[in-house]
Amino acid sequence: MEVPVEKNKEYIVQIIDNGFEGEGIAKIENFTIFVQGGIKGEKVKILILKVLSSHAFAKIIEILEESDKRQISDCESFKKCGGCNLRHVKYQETLEMKKNAVQNLVNKTLKNKIEVENVVGMENPFFYRNKAIYPIRKRQIR
After folding, report:
1. Cβ-contact 28, 6 below 8 angstroms
2. CA-to-CA distance for 30 and 28, rounded, in angstroms?
3. pLDDT tens digits, 79-111
4. Taking phi first (over 0 means left), then psi (-120 to 50 degrees means alpha), and beta for anything else, what does residue 37 get?
5. Is the entire prediction scored with pTM above 0.85?
6. Residue range 57-75: mean pLDDT, rounded
7. Distance between start and end Cα atoms, the chain
8. DSSP letter (8 states) at residue 89
9. How many beta carbons lie within 10 A of that of residue 133, not counting itself?
10. Could you give the domains of the chain?
């Protein structure tokens, strides 16, 4: 299969789904592109960052048609720190996205399909972290 996209080129795509970590999923000629910060239902202009033989990665340059599920993040650092990769999505929708991610994983592995129950949300979904990354290096002490 010939890869229909090129690194450092811009394309206009429709976000057709969201992936396991909340990234948007788009297709060009049936070729999968993972789009940072994309929300299902949006039409966006993207820049291709990395191309592999089976898929590509991109970032949004411009949102042409915004999802009603998008919100302005309450955190200035969320894009840089990586601890809350869904801060731009309304909370109720993040619960639905998480449920769908689990449902898809369960359906891939089980012969007898089951229905995943709704995700139980928090009353106050702020001031917590679900991921922490600490860079460490080995250093000799003299």
Report:
1. no
2. 5
3. 777 667 788 899 999 999 989 888 988 888 888
4. left
5. no
6. 94
7. 56
8. B
9. 7
10. 10-109 (2.40.50.140)
